[in-house]
Structures are given as structure tokens and as C-alpha cells.
Amino acid sequence: MKITLEVFGSLREHLPRYDPEPGLEVEIPSGTRLSGLFAQLKLPVTESNMITVDGRLAEEDEPLTDGASVLVLPYVGGG
After folding, report:
1. Domain boundaries in the chain?
2. What span, in angstroms and rounded, lies between the C-alpha atoms of 67 and 54?
3. Mean pLDDT, range 5-9, rounded to an integer
4. What is the mean pLDDT of residues 11-40?
5. Is the pLDDT confidence value at 78 over 90?
6. Which of 3, 14, 16, 78 is deepest in the core (most CB within 10 A)?
7. Is 6 helix (H, G, I), strand (E, B) or coil?
8. Which CATH superfamily, name and number, covers 2-74?
9. At 34, is the secondary structure helix, strand, or coil?
10. 25 sits in which H/E element
11. pLDDT of 32-55, one tens digit each?
12. Can you give the pTM of this predicted structure?
């Protein structure tokens, strides 16, 4: 199955063929969870990132479905 991944900030450095316009289409086995996707891509996602699947907040154990849209954003702090 295929999903679309969009990443922002320094995470882009870990995906050499990443193009921010369309995002990255990734082929994954059926039943893959977010954590499995990140492991497959060697993407160092931590609690300091906000992750959404199809526009809603998601946890790393979330199962993915064919055609899902995954977005990974760094949390931004300030003062």
C-alpha cells in the first residue's frame, strides 16, 4: 500500500529524495504503523514532533491505511 509523507524542519535532511511540493510517496506493507514507517525510513521522529494522519493528531502506534497522508511537524516554542 502507499502513503504520502510530508516532513518539515530538520527532518527533511534525513530524506535525500524528498520534494516538499508533492511530499514523498512511500510503499509500505499492509498493517504498518507510524513507528514502522519511521523505522523503514530511518526518520528520527521524537516526542518533540507533532504527527498527523489524514489531518488528525496521531500516536506512533497508529496503524496506517492505503492512501493515508502523514504530516510530521516540529513543535515550535517561544517566549
Report:
1. 2-74
2. 9
3. 93
4. 93
5. no
6. 3
7. strand
8. Beta-grasp domain (3.10.20.30)
9. helix
10. strand 24-27
11. 999 999 999 999 988 788 999 999
12. 0.90
**Backbone angle region of 62, left / alpha / beta, with phi > 0 → left and psi within -120 to 50 → alpha:** beta
State the amino acid at position 34 in one-letter form: L
In three-state secondary structure terms, 24 is strand
What is the gyration radius of the CA atoms in the chain, in angstroms?
12
Label residue 72 exposed, middle or buried (CB < 10 Å: 0-12, 13-18, 19+). buried
**Percent of the chain, pLDDT > 70?**
96
DSSP 55-76: TEE--TTPBP-TT-EEEEEE--
Q: What is the mean pLDDT of the chain?
A: 92
Residue type, 42: K
In degrees rounded to 5, what are phi and psi of residue 40? -60, -40
Q: Whole-angstrom Cα distance, residue 23 to residue 3?
A: 10
